[in-house]
Design goal:
single chain; alpha+beta; Aldehyde Oxidoreductase, domain 4; 3 domains; 7-stranded mixed beta sheet; 5-stranded mixed beta sheet; 30 strands; 25% helix; binds dioxothiomolybdenum(VI) ion; AldOxase/xan_DH_MoCoBD1; Xanthine dehydrogenase family protein molybdopterin-binding subunit; Ald_Oxase/xanthine_DH-like; Ald_Oxase/Xan_DH_a/b
Length: 719
Amino acid sequence: MTRHLRVDGPNHDDRLDHMAQGVIGQPLNRLEGPLKVSGRATYAAEARPGNLAYGVLVQASVPAGKVLDIGDAPGALAVIQDKRMIRHAAQGLDEKGPAAGPARVEYMGQSIALVVAETFEAARHAAQNIAVRYKPETVPVDPESVTPELPPKKQSAAGDLDKAMREATFALDRVWRTPSQTAAAMEPHAAIAEWDGDGVTIRAALQMLSSNRKQMADALGICESKLRLLSPYVGGGFGSKLGINAEAVAAAIAAKQLGRPVMVAMTRQQVFDLAHRRSETRQRIRLACDAEGRLTGIGHDVLVSNLPGSEFTEPVAQATPFTYQAAHRQIVHAVARIHRNCAGSVRAPGEAVGVTAFECAMDELADMAGIDPVELRLKNIPDVEPTTERPFSSHKLAEALREGARRFGWSDRGMPRQRLEGEWFIGMGMAAAVRVNMLMESRAKVTLVQDGHAIVETDMTDIGTGTYTILGQLAAEMLGLPPDRVEVRLGDTRFPPASGSGGSFGAASSGNAVFLACEEIRQRIAKAMGCDERDLTLQDGMARAGNVARSLSELVDGMITGEGHLEPGKTEKSHRQATWGSHWAEVAVNRWTGEVRVRRMMGVFACGRVLNEKTARSQCLGGMSFGIGIALTEAMEHDPRDGHAVSRDLAEYHIPCHADVPPLEVHFLPERDPYVGPLQAKGLGELGICGAGAAVLNAIHNACGVRVRDLPATPDKII
Ligand code: MOS
């Protein structure tokens, strides 16, 4: 039986706070951790079916044009040209894949063919030496060289911002720039496809299996029921595996043609070209306020880029309309159609770079108005969403700011260039954190077996975030079992379709589905006990209600199965849902070299119920580290002649490493959000990155008096 729930109203039930075992929220270690660190968790490229052939993608060496012909590849089994395998990762579900045929090149580095050989080395050799003739075209590759498009749904305005700027006591008008960024998942994209008659099984590195199956079925021109996707372990996604990508489609096409299993694994360099990037941004931010620091005008004009016809637009200013209150407002999202590699969702699309620039602007305004930066923010927090007057589902920005200031010792902050230790200027900075919250339709199946163990099945993925663990914890709590008596099976499209991992929605969405499935099982047990499900306590293999206690093995005949189905409903529209927090950083800036060392960093976050304190904290540690990357190190540089990504490995593209990241402190504010389903949990995955870089940049200014608006803040821009 399936228990459905559409989230149409509030849920104030606090039963999860009073469960018998108290497992939910506990900082349990990741269940699959030992498998991963001992090499027993098999990632996409690690299966070895018999008779496996190896494919290597051939990449375009011109920025645009037609492929006229592709030469022979001596020693290869096949050279496959098929434009279906171009399919960009960022391509939406509604965009139909192209039909078969020779490829058109839209950016330098795009996949145009697949060479298959008996070994990876032979395939790579042939792919690198193959002769390709093009009819090249000259195309724009610089976002500021073209007239941008203005997608109508991405704009918003109220009042008269120009007038507000003219009449303001303090007015700030500045431009920030952030470079293209890459997702930089540890596991490069890979797939192994194997056909059995007209059905195909593809092991791949993917974040969202049920939508990936639709995309893949469309790309291959087969029925979804003929396609099984397996993604039990994924070595990070960060957005780059949200959609299907060239390697998986190519593997399936080649495996069909050759009648044997084919693996296509990208090299690290190929990932930089073929997985989408985060668009570079140009952000003009205008702020107007009165003498007391009350905002009267907010402007956020954004320019991003993508390929012609690509659906995705980095929603840079998506949190701007509801973070602070101002009567006059203008939000513009413009898209330059250029021929750099495809742009798509990467690590908190929108807020990661948008909140970063905006929170730097708030710091500059505070400076200008002579108001403490924390105070300026506190003065401008709205009671309801300013644009729609909808209430917030839960809103702890003010608490996060106050709690952070207290814990970090904000009152010790001095003036720029005031604190010098040896040759290092020391400074403190802060920023608000905000990220939109989403809930996605999700299903799960839970089976309680007579011998006192349970199995959770859903096509949900665990991309390193802790999904196995939190879903196991939830089922253990609801069914009164020790967590090690719950087996969690994920990453297989044969299981009920879940939200997948993305947009910070994975844990809450799939968790609610597991909760509902367990409620269904509890209902059945309650019926056998002759009590109400609410009065049922399950613990240590026993069912108790009032004075009655019976063992589960007696109540469960063989096994009980329950299915849960969660759908977002009216609360999506009735309430503005977001997660909130604050970031704090202390940096040292070398007065002679401009080198920045982050000395300590802290985040205070509110995300509704925390499902596992340890995995939640780890998400925030990762986000904050990436915030250091946005502020100081990360940049995908494009060749100005052809748009090609020239920083294309992890030596050239600097993700902060351990030496760059100081001890990070994370604090969660207790919160239950009634409008986001029975778990009362919002998404947390991406909150830690949103605004983190601004705390670092603002600390740089407080240390040495320099504002860097062209990110990243490398020493040459500070000295
Ligand atoms: Mo995320 S960038 O939606 O994986």
